[in-house]
Protein 1
Amino acid sequence: MPPPPPSPKLPSGASKGPPLNHIGLPQTEYRGGKSTLCAGCGHDAITAAITRALWENAANPYRIAKMSGIGCSSKTTAYFLSKSWGFNAVHGRMPSVTTGAMLANHTLNAVGISGDGDSASIGIGQLVHVIRRNLPMTYVVNNNGVYGLTKGQFSATADRGSKSKKGELNEFEPIDLCGLALELGCTFVARGYSADRKQLIPILRAAMHHRGTAIVDVLSPCVTFNNHAGSTKSYDWGKSNEEPLHEVGYVNPWDLDEVDYEAGSGIEVTLPDGGVLHLAKLGSDHDPRDLEGAKDLLSQAKAKHKFLTGILYIDEHRPNLIEGLRMCDEPVGTLPQSVLRPGREALEAVMESFR
Amino acid sequence: MTPNSAAQPDAAAAAPGVVVNDFTLSVATVNGTGSQTANATLIRAIIRMGVPASGKNIFPSNIQGLPTWYLIRVCQDGWIVPRENADVLICLNRETARDDVMKCAPGAWVIYDAPFKLDMLRDDVHYFPVPFATLVRDVAPPKLWKLVTNMLYVGVAAELLGIEMAAIDAALAKAFGSKPKAYEINVKAVQVGRDHARESFTRPADGYRVEQRDLIGDKILLDGNSAVGLGAVMAGVSVVPWYPITPSTSAIEATEAYLEQFRRDADGTATFAVLQAEDELAAIGMVLGAGWAGARAMTATSGPGISLMSEFIGLSYYAEIPAVIINVQRVGPSTGLPTRTMQCDILCCAYNSHGDTKHPLLLPASPGECYEMTMDAFDLAERFQTAIFLLSDVDLGMNNWLSDPFAYPDRPLDRGKVLDAEKLQAIGVKEWGRYKDVDGDGIPWRTLPGVELDGAAYFTRGSGHNEYARYTESSTAYEANVERLLRKFETLRGEVPVPHRDDTDGGSPVGIIAFGTSHWSLVEARDILAKEHGVTFDYLRLRAFPFSDAVEAFVQEHERVYVVEQNRDGQMLALMRHELPQVAAKLRGLRYYDGMPIHARHIMNDVISNERVA
């Protein structure tokens, strides 16, 4: 069992210092190293949103596992939460490393950061299979439609007909990661926009409490290689085309008494930690527990070139991989030898079976 | 690990020309006909009579319809590898029948399906035509004919060879103990086969006999893959991601079976996870994730899987993450001959992945060593925080070997240099660096995710890092780091299983080196050389890479040394020449690469021609 949080929540207004969260930590305690990405990169805004979400959730920093692959996106795990372990794996293989880490210690809270190259091309197989298995993890895709580190090639999420910085036309159909996730039966599918911090933070907070795999595909413009006219992953495009599905709110279990949503003001989903996801109606009547509805909504949006954001689908009923394997509560990585190694009589029984 | 050196003298009653307890039996069938149980019955019955026997399944990469052979070497001296030419042939495959008969040893006994009409092929063998299709009618209903035919040949062979019914019965009871009806039918089939043989054939005056001995004791009969599974479970393996590939799949199946047996509570709670991954890349990725988070993790694969895992194996080396990789080698390159045996991934594993890398290899030669070295692999992986390869092969992994029973491990699990919060505070959080060599052995200390202490966390990456696990492109930091990795490898040299050396009396100027399954052909070849030619050579059996100092000393002490191995290019020879340049000039290669276990006489002939022995 994880030990109790380091300190109790301080009464608000008790001190003049920075605001503290439920476990008594200021947001600065969730910071990481200095970013080395280009000024204005969408990824940095996502990192800031993640930092804020972790703080608001009062996440125990020691139990977060920051997992990533290779690429600009994957560097960002170094830019938040210096107090927790990070694993910058090989290109496109973050999901398998995260799966292994969670099998060894499922008391960790895995936050995986990937990009569109990492997840929609080289790592699409691992993305698909981690979704199939419903591994408990948050899987954020910093999606900019372009290969940044190798200077501007189209990625597999770039829209057909969109233009590169050099003016080349993309001839290929894009892979819509949310559409793919829905098709695979992913139990949490959301789309966000790095510039829409107000919506992205609660999406991330809910994703981090989700029972299984939470895919959060975030449009994250690349200021250096994909922010021009003709791009469909630019700030301008995002700003003119975003259509939020709903207003997203997440209430921690310890704050439930203090928040009172008006009855019928939206859809509420209780997550495994006891917190409540609240989705207040905006333009659409979509119920995110309706899988077919989510698929329809997404394909209509695609036809109309609309950039839908919000939580498209959520299912808190399907058991995750750890539950499916019926693994014990303690992390298997630290079980003692007395549990790990069978006794002499076990070996003798096996020997007898070979006689 | 030597064969029975003091075999009992042959029974005085044996007539001249009768060969007692020393022959190779070949069963030629079509795959998918269910002959495995029959062959297992034969071999188990011989063992029940106290006589050593081992089986090799030469099978196709196919489910049904292609030729397959099961070779049983019966040998009271304990030699294991089948001879090139069968002494007793059971011929049930029309397609290969002609070749099978032509390849038999002179004087062989050929038991065959009567309609094949093989008796004109040569006149220096004895023929035993059996009308299986007729006999089977009396034994079972039509749907079982194919299966029951197999037990008929067991009966015929048992009668001719003198295998006692009680021994057959015990073997059948083992196979069908829980299915009384199947047991009954099979006993009947054996009996009908025996009756037919007794009534229709006269056993030749010269020929082959199995006679009761007491050479088995409490020995067990098993395949190397089962031994790997058992070793892994006794080593406390907890995370087993894998992807199916012949011939390693049964190693995972064995691991899973033992985990289910010993590590799942009555209420269904498991203290392990076995997960079939989407491919070998994911399998090794999961192993690394689990090793990083503190669990003992293993995967098993074969050559093609190793190729796919290469990028991650380099990460394991450079980021220093424990991993155990079982490579049950098969014939490559590419898909190659997936069900045939070879020692052909030596270089590919020793220097696996891009950049400067080196990985330890453990080289088991028997199921007993598969068991022990799998346990060693876990201790070494965690102690040295790197990938450890166990190199088995088709022959060792999938064939049945007679073995002494395994000993219960006599030392606790070595979980390596891991700092918990208390230890970390004791040395001072600021003092600790994830990749710092504080003990002078090249091995750094690590923490596991989840330690509740500021400064305990670190960032794992495959990119350049300094002693404190921070990103750097500094040339000095890079050099210092890879030189430390080399120091770690030097420490490892003293910790891997040491070679076994067997000098002849008075010593010889010529030495021979072998490893893995080549050992069994080599020891027999050495015995024949001594008996038939009066020449003896000193012998060293490699058991691991990096090479212990004793390996170089052995080469140094001899004028020339032959390295016997099963691949075309002399991979172990190349590795030794590269790693031991001081003695490289003394090394020569003897190579075998037809996908079959080496025949002892082939090694013997090659040594004779190289050494110009009269």
Note: Confidence is low (pLDDT under 50) at residues 1-11 of chain A.
Protein 2
Amino acid sequence: MFCEREAVIRNAEGLHFRPIMQLVAIASQYQSAVRVHHNDRSADGRSPMELLMLIATQGSKLRLTAEGEDADAALTALTELVESGFGEA
Amino acid sequence: MIIKKGISASPGVAIGPAFVLDTEDYRIPRRTVEPSQAPEQLRILDAALEASRQELAELRVATARRLGEQAAMIFAFHEAFIAEPGLRRAIVQLIERQHYTAAFAFSNEMNRRQREFRAVADAYLKERVKDLQDVERRVLRNILGRAREDITRLTQPVIIVAHDLTPSQAVSIDRAHVLGFALNVGGQTSHVALIAKLRGIPAVVALNDITSDVTGGELLVLDGSHGIVVCDPDDANVERYRESQAEHRRQEIHLKQFRGLPSVTRDDVRVTLHANIELPEEVDAAIEAGAEGVGLYRSEFLFLAATRPPTEDEQYEAFLDAVKRVKGAPIVIRTIDLGADKISAAVGPSRDPNPDLGLRSLRYCLQHLDLFKQHLRAILRASAAGDVRIMFPMVTTLMELRQAKATVADVMEDLEEDGIAFRHDVPIGMMIETPAAALLSESFAREAAFFSIGTNDLTEYTLAVDRANERVAHLYAPHNPAVLRLLRMIIDSGAAAGVPVSLCGEMAGSPLYCKMLVGMGLRQLSMAPQDIPEIKRVIRSTTLPDCQEIARRALGFDNDRELLNYLRDVTREDDPERL
């Protein structure tokens, strides 16, 4: 199964250390291969370094894709995390 | 004997053996192995990754306890970086297909990643290359089975010699065994300089290649006050510096007696001495040194130290901490005073071809109102707890001052609506550090509650000299007659309008200028805490008519060399033993 969603970075600090750690932790809970796309770059959802290199700041629009049995569940959890601003202001 | 000149990052003299931190890349002894050896290399790799992960977990917990969660996040990230399956996968491929050794394969993959990082045009990410190097060294050390060279495990007092210190190293400094720092790179505002100053460790930075000039165990003399390191000094030099070390201590004891005494001239003119600080913790040392308040709290340090912009609550906590520590005395919080490049390391990418004349400081804040309001909100919330005053830096036009004041009013309204306490009559003043503000000081005096003269920037902008540029630094002189005339203009404007004028540049902490400044009419000076006892001594030794005579003569010179000679003569007469 292949799924695709969009999510906007809400928190002021953007996709930096802490949000990335949260994202990696959640992506690692699922079987599906998760990728995060921003502008012309894309990152493995389990790679802190690749995610950091997306340079996603507040207001950046991310495209999330997942391929695997639990792709839909994975993306639901991840878009919720991103849209909630990673629990930050 | 070699004498190396760098930049003074923290004052004092240290004499002791060098401890050269191996910050160079580890030399990898073997690059390839027989195919049959691959499983052994995989085992070595996995053991090293696991050992590194464990070290980082320990470091993360210890750092969280000592320095808080935000600093610990750095190591959590390093941990996650090592744990990433893709990293191991790439290295395993190199070992299995290319028959690389674990060390060579790992280092190869890390170099590839560092190159990718460097290729991204983003200041924040560029800084993160240091984190990758930190991780690389840690894992390589484990692969090669090297002993851990932690600064935490020193057994005798040493002078640390290194290219630079990584985040891991900076947090693990063992004060009891570190006499001083000598680094290849760095500046006066680097993290190492800050830590060194806070803990009273002499430090010299920007020494270029000190690591290659010094071998471990070699005797060093480090003069942090003058930015000098003497490698393998002769007996005469050691003797001379031991004396100056002792003199430094005697001087401190001598000056201590001034701490409790009021800062008045012999004819009873009060000159209030305030401290310049960057961190709340520094307030204690400032009061200990005799400061009657904080004349300049450089709030931007919060932004420099973080990997992301601090939240409102984090800013509030820091301000509140400082306000509580001054115990009711005045504390002037200067709003963020950073170049766009420094802010963007925390906020997002931007480019300014000429940062000193670019989008910086208050200009940046007025264009990024969300950030500015959040900052002001944190300051105002802290204002409920003491005598907080707000000061705007880098003002050039009256409109900027009005806009900034209007923003404060907006934030006050929001706080009022939210039912949050703050000081309603918080005084709002400004730095005068551009020639424009100095020339218009008469107009500014009608709208600002107080002035504080930033002579460092005022001198640079007036003389069009970047003092960090060694080719023109000789032109930098706060006693240049052009600068002094601006000072007189500002002081007179303040006096005419009844607006208090302080001076918070480095000039304020120098005995050379003290009497002249008092003679010109200043009654408030703000300086580094360690300068306060000495300035108080000068003030207590003089009278207002003496100071006025010195100011009158000083303003008569039209050449900065002659003026400097005059001031030196006056200072020497005053205390012939000390110069």
Note: The CA atoms of residues 199 and 225 of chain B lie 15 Å apart.
Protein 3
Amino acid sequence: MSSPNSAYPDTPEQAMKPKRHEWPLWEVFIRGQHGMSHRHVGSLHAPDADMAVKNARDVYTRRNEGVSIWVVEARHIAASSPSEKGPLYEPSESKVYRHPTFFDIPEEVGAM
Amino acid sequence: MTRDMAFFEFLLRMGDNTLVLGHRVSEWCGHAPVLEEDIALANTALDLIGQTQMWLGLAGEVEGQGRSADDLAMLRDAWDFRNVLLAEQPNGDFGQTMMRQYLFDQAHVLLLEKLAGSSDERVAAIAAKSVKEVAYHVERSRDTVIGLGDGTSESHRRMQAALDLLWPYAGEMFTDDEVSGIMAGEGIAPEPSSLRAAWDAAVQQTMSEATLVIPDSDFAHAGGKTGFRHTEHLGHMLTQMQWLQRAYPGARW
């Protein structure tokens, strides 16, 4: 996996084989002006977390899109596997009773 | 020199610094080492050009000859420019560009902080708007100077060479003269020399973190902000920057 030093093309790591040096990949999450939660907006490369936030500011908030930035190195994200789609998600398709549509919500509760 | 003449000169110094440096930085557009830096540099260039519109717009107003910001930017020749020599120096490699940016940004932010309290409301308003942009510029350029200075042997060597090359151009940002004396007397702008100690302290801190050695010399090139003698680079830059308005006078989008 890439370490911060691999950002610098001439840093000797292994004398043997030339390898492609790149800054690590970061996933960027922005909370918009009116949004409550951070949303994934894209990714970028940066040598460290601090620069990743700065790069995210420059790449993803140029048009006033956000008020808060999260970045996380892509390798730290654990994702579900597409091949497990069946067992993971299909069982819930037939369970409509899990949607809270069978209750009458009292007026005084307001928007939910 | 009358107050208004000095005020006009002062505003040209502000606007020409941001115009010339903004154009220089824009030369990286599409050429920066990585996409993220390319966009960041373009943002910085656009901030500086935006500030230019305000400074030169006010300059034209103070001059009272009906010249717009565009007229001042595109229809003056090299000897009428009042930017410091540092701003017009060529980009060199990426490290040289970032070193130039940091040395300038650090002085720029200190100056704008003071100008936000200017006795002239228009100056104070422009400074208050600009200082937020420039606070980010200096944060970014400082981090990059530190990252590259304290990076690999190659990046360190290049950053030290950039500092050695550009250091003699830094001193001009802090020299006082008749213009600055009148501005300080009117409470419009501080004497440049009054910013030097804070700049020195900040730059020493940065260079120490960057493991770079500041040249042991106070020699400073002069002639940019007085217009006495620019380096040859400004004329070459203007032939590109002003070409369209020179070849097609009055052309508009």
Note: The longest strand of chain A covers residues 25-32.
Protein 4
Amino acid sequence: MSDAPIRAEKVTKVFGGLTAVDGVDLELRRGEVAAVIGPNGAGKTTLFNMLTGLYRPTSGRIRLGERDITRARPDQITALGVARTFQNIRLFPTMTARQNVMIGRHSRMKAGVFGSIFRPPWVNREEREAEERAGEELKFVGLKADLLDRTTASLSYGDQRRVEIARALASDPHVLLLDEPTAGMDPRESAELAGFVLKVRDERKLSILLIEHDMKVVMGISDRVTVLDHGELIAEGDPAAVRQDPKVIEAYLGRSAA
Amino acid sequence: MPVAFAIHDLTADGSLTRIGNNLVDGVSNGAIWALVALGYTMVYGIVELINFAHGEVFMIGSFIAFAAFGWFGMDLNTAIPLLILGLLLCLLISAIASGTLNAMIERVGYRPLRDAPKLAPLITAVGFSFILQNVGVLWLGGSQVSVPDLIGSQDVLFQISGVEVTNGDALAILTTVPLVLALTFFIDRARLGKAMRATAQDPDAARLMGIDVDKTISATFLIGGLLAGAAGLIYALYQTTIWFHQGFEAGLIAFTAAVMGGIGNLRGAVIGGILIGVIQQISDNRIGPEWTPVIVFAFLVLVMVVRPRGLIGEETRQAG
Amino acid sequence: MSAALGKIKGFDQRFLVIAAILFAILLPFFFDRGSSFMDDAVLALAYVVMALGLNVIVGFAGLLDLGYVAFFAIGAYTMGWLGSTFYSQANGGEGVHLLVTGAAANLPGIHVNFLLVLVGAIILTTIAGVIIGLPTLRLRGDYIAIVTLAFGEIIGQVAANGDQVRIGGIWDKTLGALPLIPDLGSEATLTRGKLGISPVDKIDLPFVDPFTSLDIRSWYFVALGLVLIVLFVNVRLRDSRLGRAWVALREDEVAAISMGIPTVKTKLMAYGTGAALGGMSGAFLGSYLNTVNASQFEFIFSIFILAMVILGGLGSVWGVVIGAILLSFVNSWLIPDVLNGLPGQLGLDFDLTQVSFAIFGFILVIVMILRPEGLIPERSRKQEMHGIGTGDRAGAGSDVELGEAR
């Protein structure tokens, strides 16, 4: 048995008549940074949505360690230690950065209706800790201190990305899924972010799976690369080998010179 | 369910007369709901709004028809050719009045809120519904008003082995069928119909293609209102009583029918309307009319919860 | 700088709240114990409780509930069942008396102390809230509105026809046969339809004389007590883990569920809490109005309460309080007593009370078009209403459809 924190086994997702993901096997190994690449519409985000429980696979299984999470709900999967970001940032726009990150703590907190109303000491402690933790995470991702209590709708694009990562980290994940973290960034910002991903991996002992278009980032930080095209897995391996793979070259060059 | 009752009747009375009558009454009553449901489904299909005031637009249609009978001095003694002419004229008047009203409500109450959260126009729709109900109260008072039975609604037109088809049944079915056919033809063929379909699928793309989206939406409300007005007239002749509260239940029934048929699906809405009409008749006849609203609302909940995408057909626009 | 400002504002708000509560406590001493103003004031407070309950569901969690009247009905019937001579055959005609004093202690029927009725109403309405909420949660927002409306209508219709529903026989053979639970007699029905269960027991609290309908002041203080409890619940919930989760679900359900917020459970908590608060007020009103009558439970009531929440400001606790007080006085004082003859003076042939539905409908329309965030907006709601971060991301290239999300 391989040491894989999260693994997809022959997963397929069909929408109406369209097969978005077709029998893909994918595993993320402990402590690695792995990338999923592929042209637009290759099924990468659909795969992510299945891994995080937003979509239920048409067939195939998803395992978290030994545990079968194919039919688990997204919130259950988060509670089991999988966190994600979204391709087009999905923060809660009217909440402050700090509140957004506190939402990330939700699954680690316990206060229910009665706890929230009567606020026994443990609830106050829990709230305080969540607030402190949110501050720490935002500092960790490099958000300036004076922006912590601004609504996220008013933050710059780059800062919104940071908050989204902080929100994911706040849920104590051991698997982190990043959906195009460098989308919309200039080369310098992308390079910075690539370095940051490695730092997160090392300091938090995480396994990270990312979808990425920026080949520089992919080649720079990935231990392994999986290539999807038309929902099918066409290549997998270390970045250098994948780059040489004729099928990959064709998938990319066949469409455009991206 | 009708099948189960048919079997029950066969074993109990040895004939299918009772269920047959239930079906005829149900279909004709359902045909009226179908006309109202068409307006619902068109509007929802195009702007994704539950036009809560639609039932009241239908009610106002009934009231206008009632008034128009008076204007033309139509009563039980009117000669048949004149009666038919008069009724057609009244149909035109109530349809145009309701259509204009519906389009005006859209202009005033919904268009300013097109970019607001979806619940905002729904709330104004509820507001309009109450305003119109009160218009109804001021107009004809708070209780049922009888309408001259111009067509002899309950008179039996013909009979097939005990199953009676009344003038009212014939009127409802014979007016609904051509209206529905004309509408589907229009939507399939006419330029405006095509614009409506394009706007329903993707308003932004439609705009890029040079379609005047505002005008298309207005037209949709207008057509929906026309049908509701027509339904209002038929209802007045069919039931021979009208009152301000008739729109509330009609609206909910019609919305259920629209959901059942798959929002945006015209034929589905018609089938849905007829199905609910049949359910109502069976409930009226076998459980007791005072329980029919409970049955209908329970059915509504069931449909919305179990098959929010419709029992029949598909949505024209992806839920999202 | 901004932190200091916040502190001053925080101080001001606290001061205002304390002043308002003091005002509310002192107010009844300026009016006659039985005056019509006191009557209007008690109703206003009871409606504040309802509106704050609905605010949890609509304002906090963003679930448009058009059938809130259901919880008023269930709360009121709990009071009617457990505090009147309605079940006069109960316990073999001897009646059931639990911690009641005064006249009620000697009457047939079931008579339970008001505080226990309140607990019963809370339990029943919470269950009802969850039952009504459960099937709606996977639906889109506007469908939720219609389904809750339908549930409200079903409850209202069952109340109206409940005089035909004989529950006595079944009850006596099942639950009534258990020890400690009284039998009801075979004639017992579910409700008394449009005739109504009346009279209903007056509130009976420990250490004070049983209430009478002549001295409204004591009712006022009970209602005020309920308002304070419900205010506390609203404020605490708003500023809590749950309150945050509700905002998150409202703004982006897919992101919220992906961040570990269980949708069903979190929304049900809103339904259950909101329902329980409505039930409390319902039980109070059952006793205060001295009748539990099916014609009280119509759709317009749901809209009446919704209009309070919307006028005050969705999600805004203090706004809702003000909205409820305003509309309640508009309904019970301004329309019937002050402006009723106005149309007549203008040469129109109707009374303003005839069009009170339209007035509330008009308020809904006007507020939504001119000031959708309400009189005293809640910050995040204000931004949502003006298009910042609405939940409606359809067409904006969102990567997950809500229909698929679970």
Note: Chain B has a mean pLDDT of 88.
